[in-house]
Amino acid sequence: MADANEPGPEGKRHLVSNNVSYPAIKSINLEECRAEKSYKLTVEQKPSSIPKRRQELLKWNGWGYRDSKFVVNKNGHVEFTGERYRLSNTVMPALRDWMINTVGISLEHQQPAQPELTAADIVAPIVNEGFLEDMQRTGISFTDDPQDRLFRAHGHTLHEVFILREGKFKRIPDLVLWPVSHKQVQTVVELCSKHNVVIIPFGGGTSVSGALECPENEKRMIVSLDTSQMTKILWIDEKNLTACFECGIVGQDLERRLAEKGYCTGHEPDSIEFSSVGGWVATRASGMKKNIYGNIEDLVVHVKVVTPRGVISRNCQVPRISAGPDIQQFILGSEGTLGVVTEVIMKIRPLPECQKYGSVVFPNFEKGVDCLREISRQRSAPASIRLMDNEQFQFGHALNPEVKSVLASFVEGFKKLYITRIKGFDLQNISVATLLFEGTKEEVANQEKRVYEIAAQFGGIPGGEENGLRGYMLTYVIAYIRDIGFDYYIVAESFETSVPWDRVLDLCRNVKDRLIRECKERGVQFPPYATCRVTQMYDAGACVYFYFGFNYRGVGNPVKLYEDIEMCAREEILANGGSISHHHGVGKVRKRWLGQTISEPGLGMLRAVKQYLDPKNIFGNNNLMIDSKL
Amino acid sequence: MKPGEDLSPTSWVKKDQPTDVSTMAHYKDGGYEDVLEERRHTSDLKYAMKSRPDVPRYKYCKPRTPAEIKTQVLNSDRLRYTIEKISDATKTSKEEIMKEAGSILDDMAHNLTVGVVRSVAFFLIKVFKSIFSRIYVNKEGIQMLHRLLHEYPVLLMPTHRSYLDFLLVSYIFYEYDLPLPIIATAMDFQGMKFFSWVIRQVGGFYIRRAFGSDTLYWAIFTEYVQTHLRNGDAPIEFFVEGTRSRTAKSYQPKIGMLSASLESYFKAELPDVMVVPISISYDRILEETIYAYELLGIPKPKESTAGLLKARGVLSNDYGSVHFHIDNPISIRLFSSNKIDRVQHALEPRYINNLTAQEKDVMVHLARHIVRQQQGHMVISPWALMASVLMQSREGILLRQLIKEVEWLKRQTSNLGAYVNWPGNTSSESVVQHYLSLHMNVISISETGLIELKLVLPSHMKKPVADEVMLNAATNLILSSYRNQLLHVFVQVGMLSLVVNTSPQVTMTMEDLYQGYVFLETLLQKEFVFLQGETKKEFEWAVLTLNHSGALAIKDNHVLVKQSINKYTTFFSQMFEPFLLGYWVLCQYFLSLPGDIQGKPLPRKPKNFTKEAQKVALRLLQENVIRHYEILSLDLLGNGLLALVEMGCMYKDKRWVSHSVTCHTRSVTRHT
Ligand SMILES: Cc1cc2nc3c(=O)[nH]c(=O)nc-3n(C[C@H](O)[C@H](O)[C@H](O)COP(=O)(O)OP(=O)(O)OC[C@H]3O[C@@H](n4cnc5c(N)ncnc54)[C@H](O)[C@@H]3O)c2cc1C
Which residues form the Phospholipid/glycerol acyltransferase domain (chain B) (predicted)? Predict the structure, then answer.
């Protein structure tokens, strides 16, 4: 019953370019498109870039598109395949040596993944006959295809992907449903309530908190409510600069289609290719350019949610309201525990006239952090600033494309700079900030001037546009690199936190130290790779993002080992005044710290709301405050 | 021939490994190496000028000068905050307070200077070579430090028995190319201009002994210590016992310095802090005589430069060997994990001083743990064994008998897990004779070969102490200080022995035995360092030890008292008897106090209390009722007083003492 939609040519995009990321098709005559409602622009609806049978386009057991991956080619060099990204189809001669030297892989020692699972390997579904009968009558599309069910059984934590590669999930959804509208979602929720069937909403499946995993002990039937067919942009309101989206539209489609009308939301999480509007709301997501556009909670004007108790909505679409505690804030970050977000009204902005990358080289990470703090104090942050530590800068080395490539290498670029202009900088210490400016040409010029002036006070030297662009490119590539690591006994993962300014440096140092020490004490045979960067800044603090991986050859149960170590790291983060999460959310993997984070009465508040909205625990994904006993 | 020349603890090597003499002579078991050996054959000047290439440095350290450190302290958030607060409260201008802060800091700060360090090294090596035959250092400890100092900020905590302690630490760090520590020093030295200057240049920084609630001082001091720790400029050295132990027993640890430093860890400014205890054992302590007089309450000579120089008379003396043992590091993170929650500091700026109750608790725990670890690595000198035997032989003892007893005691000491510095295949007689020769200042040997105590006249006293008892007491206290070096090894079995030896019953239940043990531990809590919550465990260990060595007869879970009163338990009891006697005297004194109208004794100051109790003790000694001179020790009487207060026998305003405890004490000491 799967009616797959092959992605159109839009499926392919250039993530990073010197121009605006999304083609601004200004030629469209807005007048023509205007519908009956005076200022509301109707938009031609297009299918999602992601097909219903996701596994046909996306890896079933790894990150991203099937065609894009790191492989060791016949010459023994690492190559990134496919054509989607700027780094696609290039050989990176230094990457192999980096992997050998930094994390101790050996090309002879491989740990291949298990072959694609067939129906025989996948647990049979629990069936609630009454529900199924009622469902059939609704005309809502659904399937019990094992591979479809498996694909919706997980997000992208290390633990989940490792199970896909080497093991089996104990519990996966019993049915996948594809409602196409708010109405259909209502029907589904009603039927599930009636028949006591569990619903787990599924957006883009990019969760990194274990939020999508089925509770192992759930005896009731579990359905995965896949929102991927709810991709309409219901309207664009040019007067108020708002637009209404259905929850299943993924970031890349949303921005591309808004761009056709000359707009953007500016919300760009690193998972933008696959994550959905509903997922953003449900996890309190954060986008790269939040300095200009805000995080999801700043962007959202209104959300509509279907809960077992009924539909939550406001009676107005207003910029701010004083009507008691904000009910929408209960939905933001609710992680699929209360209901399904179906329609979201978000702010939009005209596409910026000018977009420009930049970079700054600092003598060391400390200076870089000091500089960011000052930029934040002066409130002169550009759309995005990210500061990477030296280890991450060195990783740039590894991604040097072949010399023949049109791209000059990331690090080579800096090296040249180093030789010609910044003698005295120690390559083993330097730290690099990448920048993205947006606005009118004038605004961008002013911002640039301001930022580089402040940077100079901290010994920072402009490192050029190309280097900035390459820095952002790394982000997308890093998500893919974990899969090749797996092949060579590397387990790796990222995690993040938010922390007040005065503790940023201590936290970065202490957490890295803790990671390395825990590895040593637990008998990891090779030096681990622990690196961090500051990815967001606020008036009162920053977001810090860690990458951590190690070679587990010679030690048993790598996932457990990894999780134990990450747990120590999180404890270290909390002890350093950091938060449980800045944007990934709590899900199941960080649940144990929620109580201490928001206090017991706080937890009780969340439970009371849950109890009222969903007394039968239909949204029983066991995330957040859900007490397993509930 | 210098006595004991061929008795050096390593002399046996010469016989066993003739080919290795030159390289092996200064090594011995336990991984010790004699640092002086090489220095005896090379130029001191060259040594003082040697290059120190691979000095390890904390990996996150940013080099700073002492002057830069001062500036950073004065500009720190902590100081700014404190000054603001004081200024608001006292309506004093911030500039004025800042000025005061500056001068406090000037008084405090070190000025570690390599040039001066080299000159001092040049001088020190000469002194050490002349007064010590060997300075043994455990090589493993050095290697461990080389690695550790790179990874984490380090607190060095040596035992404190002598002024030489910190000089030894710096000297050994200089010798082995380790970063020179900065040293928390009490203000005692500040009177001596030259020494005070030198000490600053070699890394000493000064702290007032008492600054109670002086918030400005506390802020400066804390920031000064923590800035060093955070940046890892140098290892920080301080003495957890607070001051030099005059009794050669470990003092009850203090947590002031610990809490000033560890706040940095509790507030997550550091990944971890490593505490490295160092155990320094002397065959003979430089200040032995001065200490004895101090303990008796004869005012200690002001530590003036002149005084110290006169002490140079000591330079011609032989002080035997020193063992310098660097212990395994204690990771504060591991030590405190599950005991504290650092998250609790997340809601306030970190420069505001506020440690939690759990954190304070952890530090008390830690401080005791450190002392116990120090004790565990003290090297027991044969002289400590001899002193213990001599203390129990009031009428003197013949050499042959002494040797026999010492050999017996040596076995007991080893059985309890202590390391006795007893040279391999040297005859016991020569060992004993060697140590006798080292301590002829307190010992005399009569024509008949009877070995006994000698009276001393301290060189710095113009007028000799009139009372003969006091003189004897001084010699006795010197001797007892060496016996004291053994007590931490025996304290658990000693207390057990005391309970058994004083039992009027024929058999004793284990519970009674334990109750008796607990009572003694409570009574002696200021005298010895016990671990909180470990009483039962240590009791069981002591029972097992005595039972297995045949000293404690147990049948059907009952102690057979008669069979258990034997050489072992008697000897062990007697080691601790002086303390109980002293406490008994204290109680006698309390009871003799004239009462007010309700019959309650009038309150007095603790100091007067012990002074007057000492008079009672003196009388008892003069009348020959008691023959243990140690009951004159103000330290002992003071400890007793504190313990009695702690036990609730006296009110905080120190009024009266409960009768029951006196009886109990009396019962414990009845057998004397
Ligand atoms: C490589 C990579 C990069 C990432 N970068 C970022 C980043 O930059 N910023 C950021 O914030 N996050 C990032 N994430 C995390 C993840 O992309 C976000 O949490 C995202 O918001 C999840 O959206 P999704 O549509 O994929 O939701 P899913 O993963 O499908 O679901 C996440 C949770 O939301 C619930 N949910 C989904 N849709 C709905 C709905 N319509 N109604 C109710 N509940 C729903 C699900 O039940 C689940 O609990 C990244 C993840 C990866 C793997």
Answer: 154-283
On whether A158 is known to bind a ligand per the annotation, the reply is no
Question: Is the C-beta atom of A210 inside 6 A of ligand 1?
Answer: no
β-bridge mates for residue B206, sequence order? B185
Decide: residue B430, CB within 10 A, 0-12 exposed, 13-18 middle, 19+ buried. middle
Distance between CA atoms of residues A320 and A301, nearest Å: 8
The tokens describing B44, both together, are 């001191």
Q: Does residue A333 line the site of ligand 1, with CB under 6 A?
A: no
Query: What are the structure tokens assigned to B654, written together?
Result: 């120190």
CB B167 within 8 Å of CB B132: no
Cβ–Cβ under 8 Å, residues B493 and B614:
no
Reference A107, options A68, A71, A69; nearest CA is: A71
Alpha carbon of B310: minimum distance to chain A alpha carbons (Å): 51
The CB of A282 under 6 Å from ligand 1? The reply is yes
Measured over the CA atoms of residue B214, residue B217, residue B221 and residue B223, the dihedral's sign is: positive
Check B268 against A510: CB less than 8 A apart. yes
Tokens 């054509």: give the residue.
Answer: A83
CB B402 within 8 A of CB B432: yes
Q: Identify the H or E element spanning A202.
A: strand A198-202
Q: What is the pLDDT of residues B235-286, one digit of tens each?
A: 999 999 999 999 999 999 999 999 999 999 999 999 999 999 999 999 999 9
Chains A, B: CB contacts within 8 A come to 33
- Report the alpha-carbon distance of residue B271 to residue B268 in Å, rounded: 7
β pairing state of A90-92 and A78-80: antiparallel
Q: How far is the CA of A341 from the centre of ligand 1 (A)?
A: 13
Looking at ligand 1, which residue's alpha carbon is closest to its atom 14? A271
| Rounded CA separation B404/B162 (Å) | 31
Query: By the 8 A CB rule, do B491 and B418 touch?
Result: no
Catalytic positions of A, written as ranges:
545
Burial per residue of B330-366, b for 16 or more beta-carbon CB atoms within 10 angstroms, e otherwise: bbbbebbeeebbbbbbbeeebbeeebeeebeebbebb
Can you tell me whether residue A578 is helix, strand or coil?
Answer: coil
Asked if B349 has any chain A CB less than 8 Å from its own CB, the reply is: yes
pLDDT (tens digit, 9 = 90+) per residue, A193-217? 999 999 999 999 999 999 999 999 9
CB B239 within 8 A of CB B233: no
Of B60, B268, B271, the CB nearest to A577: B268
A182's enclosing H/E stretch is helix A182-195
Q: Is the dihedral of CA B557, B562, B568, B570 positive or negative?
A: positive
Query: Does B60 contact A509 at a Cβ distance shorter than 8 Å?
Result: yes
ipTM greater than 0.90: no
